[in-house]
Amino acid sequence: MSRKSTTGRITRVTAIALLAGTCLAGATGCQVGINGQTLPSPYYLQDDVQYFPSGPEFKLSREAAALKAARAQEKSDRN
Q1: What is residue 39's predicted lDDT score, i.e. its pLDDT?
Q2: d(Cα 31, Cα 23) in Å, to the nearest integer?
Q3: pLDDT given for residue 3 in this prediction
Q4: Hey, is 41 helix, strand or coil?
Q5: pLDDT above 90 (res 74)
Q6: Fewest C-beta atoms under 10 Å: which of 11, 39, 46, 51?
Q7: Is the pLDDT score of 32 beyond 70?
Q8: How would residue 37 be classed by pLDDT, with cut points 50, 70 and 90?
Q9: What sign has the CA pseudo-torsion 43, 48, 53, 59?
Q10: Phi and psi of 42, rounded to 5°?
């Protein structure tokens, strides 16, 4: 093989690899962080939405009930 043929083949393979890499990078949808912002993928409108039902406003309701019962028990023990 001549040197010109080998150089042309390397250039062609490099160009195909760069084109394939560009196509793959453009086809992926992932989050990107730019200047401290997390930006969504370009396909965020097609994503399925997860629904999380709202819970109680006061997150420690069981603990508050237990403290109230303990105070009532302590108060009844004093009498």
Answers
A1: 76
A2: 17
A3: 67
A4: coil
A5: yes
A6: 51
A7: no
A8: confident
A9: negative
A10: -65, -10
Both tokens of 69, joined, read 């019962």
How far apart, in whole angstroms, are the C-alpha atoms of residue 6 and residue 10? Answer: 6
Strands (E), 1-79: 32-34, 37-39
- Taking a C-beta distance cutoff of 8 angstroms, is the pair 43, 32 a contact? no
Give the three-class secondary structure for 79. coil
46 and 60 in contact (C-beta within 8 Å)?
no
Q: Is the pLDDT of residue 2 over 70?
A: no
Structure tokens that stand for 40 in this block: 């969504």
Write down the residue that tokens 């039902």 correspond to: 53
**In the chain, domain spans:** 1-45
